[in-house]
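Continuing from the previous page...

OK, I double-checked the sequence for NUDIX domain-containing protein against my notes and this is the correct one:
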Amino acid sequence: MEFRDYDTRLAAYCVIVAQEDGRDCVLLSMLSAERTRWGSMWTLPGGGVEYDEGFEGAALREVREETGYDAEILGVLGARTFTPQRRGSGEPDGRPFKSAAVIFEAVVTGGTLGTLEVGGSTEYAAWVPIDDVAPGTPSTTRLPDHTSAGPERARDGVRVVSTVGYALDLWRRLQRMRSLPVT
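Thanks. Re-ran it with the corrected sequence; updated structure tokens here:
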């Protein structure tokens, strides 16, 4: 399939980690059950890039809408592409699409926890312990930047968008690199 044969959805997401009760917790948004074929599930705050905005602006806008927090971007963690498992399942008109997402590391700079979206895809936001939603040990192999797999499962059985595990793996790798001595 050539690039003219499908639509591209640009997206931007933020990994925001803070200490809660002595544990690393990640800020996540709960997608509404009506918005996915898998039901309610955790995702990173973020979403589609509007026509008139860049990746950074979209990520910060989405964090504000979905979580109630203002944020500052610290840097780019990575990028990921995604296509739905079933061709044509992502759009009402049946035209296939591919999501291309940039994933940022960010910190909260203000605001109060609570989704500001009205009629959007987010039910609520929460700080969730990383160990409850990230895959076990960070991967030691090269991370795939594309998956057609469905969601993963959190420790309590709630579904988690696969990009969360991918992004947290990137974040953990960055933390390990930051802790290495400078030579």
